[in-house]
Each structure stands twice: as structure tokens, then as C-alpha cells.
Amino acid sequence: MSEQIKEKVLSLLKNYPEMSRRIAALRYELAHPVRVSPQEMLEAMVFHRGEEGSTANTSDRDKTYRVAVHFRQKAEQINREAVRNTLAELHEMEQERDRLLRFISLLDEREATVIRMAYLERRKVAEICGALDVTEKTVLTAKKHGIAKLCELYMLTAPIRA
């Protein structure tokens, strides 16, 4: 078994809760993007002084308006790019998470249960022993074998994903 693959598998397992939180945060950002309305942007950019003796003439206001419109278009482009980047990051993270969960589901039942409880649920060995009514040695063996099998699955698919 490649040490690099084993490190990747262990990292994915240990970081699973954080990955799940990050996915939830990205989904929230996509559902609730922070944006400035085009009208607000134009109002902020166009200075219109209705006072007598204003130093801004019509030509200056027209130029400022054109700059404001260009700025709004640029802001919309930046917002679209931000959404695309967020979607790309979200897609990549969900794929990695789904792949890990799929590979765990391919393990023997006891190994899958121990891996889920130990890494995804962050339960201690003693808790797992109590929940499954098995010895500590059984839990540690199932965990060790489960990780080894996950590494094999990742090694099998490594050439495909490269």
C-alpha cells in the first residue's frame, strides 16, 4: 500500500466533519449571495448636486454615469465569476466526499460501521465498543482493515482520476 494513498485516506477521514461544514457553508453562500444592487451602485457613483453653484457640469455627470455603468457591468462579471468559483469548489468537495462515502459503503459491514463511528461521528474506541458490544481489539482490527481496504480502493481508481 502506498504511504501517500494512506495519508490521503486518513486525511479525508479525519477532515470529514470539516469538509461537511465547508460544503454546507458553500451551499449557503450560493443560496444567499451578498450583492450590491445595480441601482445602489449607480447612486453611489453618480454625483448629482442639485445645489446652485454646483461645479459639476452636465458633461462631467455624463462621464461619471458611463463610468458607473461600466463599473456595474464589471461588478456583475465579478459576481458571476465568484459564483462559478464557488460552484467549482463545491463540486470538487462534494465529489471527494461522495467518493469517500461510496468506498466506505463497499467495506464489510463491521469495518464500515467502525470507520463511520470513529471518523465521521468522531466517537472514541470505548464508545464504539459499547455501541457494538465488541472488544477494543475487534474495533481496532476492523478500523485497521477498513483503512487498508479504503487505500486499496483509492489505489485502484488512482490511474482513472489522474
Q: Which regions contain 5 or more consecutive residues with pLDDT less than 50?
A: 48-53
Structural class, judged by helices and strands? Answer: mainly alpha
Contiguous helical run count: 7
Order of helices and strands: HHHHHHH
Could you give the distance between the termini? Answer: 18 Å
Basic shape: elongated
Q: Which percent bin holds the helix content? A: over 70%
What is the count of β-strands? 0
Rounded mean pLDDT is 86
Portion in beta strands: under 5%
The major pleated sheet works out as:
none
Oligomer: single chain
- CA radius of gyration is 27 Å
Number of domains: 1
Describe, in plain words, how this protein is organized in 3D.
With 162 residues, the protein is an all-alpha fold. It has one domain. Helix content is 80%, strand content 0%. It is built from 7 helices and no strands. Helix 5 crosses helix 7. The chain is elongated. The two termini are 18 Å apart. 13% of the residues are buried. About 4% of the residues have low confidence.
Quick recap:
The protein is mainly α. The protein is built from 7 helices and no strands. About 4% of the residues have low confidence.
